[in-house]
Sequence to fold (164 residues):
Amino acid sequence: MVTNRPGLALGALAADCGPILLADGKARVIAAAHAGWKGALTGILENTIASMELLGAERENITAVLGPSISQENYEVGPEFVERFVNHNPANRDWFRPSPKAGHALFDLNGYTVARLTAAGVHAVQIGRCTYKEEEHFYSYRRATHRGEKDYGRQISAIILEDI
Fold:
């Protein structure tokens, strides 16, 4: 979602995926996006930035912040997942490291997301909070699944353009 309308809050719900808040303070354009692995791989970040540009934002003035999401140490994936990313771009191999489980890998969704944003020409940072590990602060779909719990949680990351 993208807007240049003051007073309108935009939000992204997430449970392990990356909530991304973006702002161009000069053009007064904001955005909120949800970037899981599939969206990050297939262009949600770049499409959000392009939508901001349609409202007058300029890439060099956009700051993007990746909110709480699952850390690499807690994001184990199978070989087919790694293959999908490497087939898309061989350089994507850099976002995986071996898992203790044979044939599996640990995926750095946060690093990958920030790198895609940076490659798109915006200033990007992450807050470095893990939804899986920080149970007292965040809901994690993966953690709930590992425990056999029901799926009843999400976080919202929100941004609003204030009136001046």
About this structure: Helices lie at 37-42, 44-54, 79-88, 109-119, 141-147. Residues 2-70+108-158 form a domain with the CNF1/YfiH-like putative cysteine hydrolases fold (CATH 3.60.140.10). The chain has one domain: 2-70+108-158. The CA atoms of residues 38 and 94 lie 17 Å apart.
